[in-house]
Automatic annotation (TrEMBL):
It comes from Dreissena polymorpha (Zebra mussel). Keywords: Membrane, Transmembrane, Transmembrane helix. This is Uncharacterized protein. The keyword Membrane applies. It comes from the Eukaryota. The chain crosses the membrane at residues 24-44, 49-70, 90-107, 158-178.
Length: 179
């Protein structure tokens, strides 16, 4: 009788121990799952941080591009066209790469007279900033007898704009490909 009771007690103890072991195993599995979830969250956070760094790098490259190609952007997006019609005088102006180009057209006796003036502005900085401007007049009194030549001047300016846009697009695409 005592042996049977001892055996029953042992069986009960074994059963309790097995249940405890199973519960411990379940807890360990839950902890492992939680660790895996935490690792996944950390990986996602790292990916987000990498994406943010990449976006910041692209923004920095864009700012550098804007800084170094300021004149191209100025020419492409702040392009001014002044048209004056006073006493048959036509005035065309644009600014490109620190150079001022002036084109003068005026109409007299059925002939177009074309004048060009190029003004170069250079700035030297020491303790104070001094600006030296030199003006040279070229091609005075060239007579243009038809409108075709004047139209061709405008077409050349638009071709220059298209070339600059193409160069800008190629630069941006190359930066994106490198990154």
């Amino acid at each position: 009788m005592v042996l049977i009771l001892l055996l029953l007690l042992l069986l009960v103890l074994l059963h309790i121990l097995l249940q405890l072991l199973l519960q411990l195993l379940l807890l360990l599995l839950l902890l492992l799952l939680l660790l895996l979830l935490l690792l996944l969250l950390l990986l996602l956070l790292l990916l987000l941080l990498l994406l943010l760094l990449l976006l910041l790098l692209l923004l920095l490259l864009l700012l550098l591009l804007l800084y170094y190609y300021y004149y191209y952007f100025y020419y492409l997006f702040y392009y001014y066209y002044y048209y004056y019609n006073y006493n048959y005088f036509y005035y065309y102006y644009y600014y490109y790469n620190n150079y001022y180009f002036y084109y003068y057209y005026y109409y007299n006796n059925n002939n177009y007279y074309y004048y060009t003036t190029t003004t170069t502005t250079t700035t030297t900085t020491t303790t104070t900033t001094t600006t030296t401007t030199t003006t040279t007049n070229n091609n005075n009194n060239i007579i243009i007898n038809n409108n075709y030549t004047i139209i061709m001047y405008h077409i050349e300016l638009y071709v220059m704009k298209i070339k600059l846009m193409f160069m800008l697009v190629v630069t941006i695409i190359s930066i994106v490909v490198v990154v």
